[in-house]
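FAQ: What does a multi-protein file look like?

Like this. Sequence, then tokens, then the next protein.
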Amino acid sequence: MSILYTLGLFIITAIAEIVGCYLPYLWLKKSASAWVLLPAAFSLALFAWLLLWANK
């Protein structure tokens, strides 16, 4: 894999993890709508998929 490809994959994976963890925090602590849990679940699923896909 090229360095740019690896760096891009790392950045996308990091963003997916951060968003997936931050949105439930907003729901729990900042009284955000429960609808924020849907994109959070999608983001964490994307994060897990990227981790598995990157190890091929």
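And here is the next protein:
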Amino acid sequence: MRLKALVLALGLTVSAGAANAQTLDLTLSGGNPGGLWSLLGAGMDRAAKAEDPNAVITYQATGGGFANIGLLAANRTDLGMVHDAEVKLAQDGQEPFRAPVNNMRAIGYMYNWAPMHFFLKKSIAEEYKIDSLDDLASSKAPLTIGINRSGNITGNVALFMLQAAGLDEDTLKGNGGSFVRAGANEQGDLMQDGRIDMATNGIFIGHSSFRAIDQNTDVILLTIPDNVIAATNEAFGTSAYKIPGGSYSKQTGDVNTIALGAMVVTTENMDDAVAEKVARSFLDHIDEIRNVHKAMKQLSPELMVSQRVLPFHPGAEKVYKAAGLIK
């Protein structure tokens, strides 16, 4: 492909020199405006500018990772934020995808510390003797359970984990319960108002929605059986995670669960020199990304290369190999 055509295809501005003099002008598809992903987009733009003052990474608010995979497939964005679990579903051709998606390539992992939480009202836990996810079905408790809205991967993961623990929708209905679809902050309000008995979501420990649940409702954090953790990680490409004891007011011991991660991806069509420059700017100016939110302080070069669900783009791989981060 001629350089001019490549420029048009990727939306790049190229100086008069060779390809390695390219100035980045890319679009990053993320999630809701004002959320963590929008902050990460701003940090990535600053990292690119620290490498080249003329570089631009423009953040585009979208419906989230599922939407971003579609935008990449349609060549309507250059980079996308996605959860590892969404990538796994796309590769396997599972809902909402009609066929396997195999053209995505990783630029870098951003975090892997968004653990699944299952908060149950303490009064119900005591009445039905529930302390683990696998007690829910056998307890026969008529629970109203909050699940994130359709299209949000944490809803998929929560339903899978509950089913793996024996509580599918038919069993829940047979017990006199039901699922209620609601976002993170909504679930806190619903619990406080007595409209749901249990909240489920996968976000950072101490997220504002979790703090609201912990402070305004008397709840316990359910433990997760090892077999449910293993099955979930196998199905979604997630990882085991421990919520330390004392993270919430009624949590006395550690709680093992799974955690979702998020990464920046592109497609195999991105020019190697462009992917190389993106990865180098993120790696060399990682503090620009770390500083967007206190939850990102854990980001490290080693974490950036730790994802296992996608091949790295050759341009990004070149950067990480040169830095001794991968072989």
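Q: Is there any per-entry metadata?
A: Some entries carry free-text notes. For the entry above: The chain has two domains: 3-112+261-322, 114-259.
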